[in-house]
Amino acid sequence: MMIGRDEIARMIPHACAMCLLDGVLKWDQVSIRCVSARHRAEDNPLRRAGHLSAICGVEFAAQAMAVHGRLAGGVGRRPKAGYLASLRDVKCRRERLDLLEADLIIAAELLMGDEQRVIYQFALDCAGIEMLSGRAAVVLEVAPE
Asked: Confidence class of residue 98 from pLDDT cuts 50, 70 and 90?
């Protein structure tokens, strides 16, 4: 693993149980692959009535995108915050993530971006089977210089 959970937690604003990524496996200027076992965690704050809906995988992907943005830094100045603006072509292939026994692999690829917005393609797979995929547009709030 290239980057562990503690370092990830310092890169994104999500703390404690809300930090959903356990590690970065690989990254370059346009893509990132992360790993997580947090879909099985009883203290996962996205669980409702003990279940973790597959659509919550979007938050795993969003955190991977945020980490990629911090590592790659290719869209100009560091953003103060990022806001999910839209999702496109989202496909869920399971109802729940908490029933999956293997770790999740979260992949995100930067399709385009500038200082104000980025668009990523993302996918979550478990044991080589794609569970969730789609595209996300994120609006960036740039910190003042």
From this structure: very high
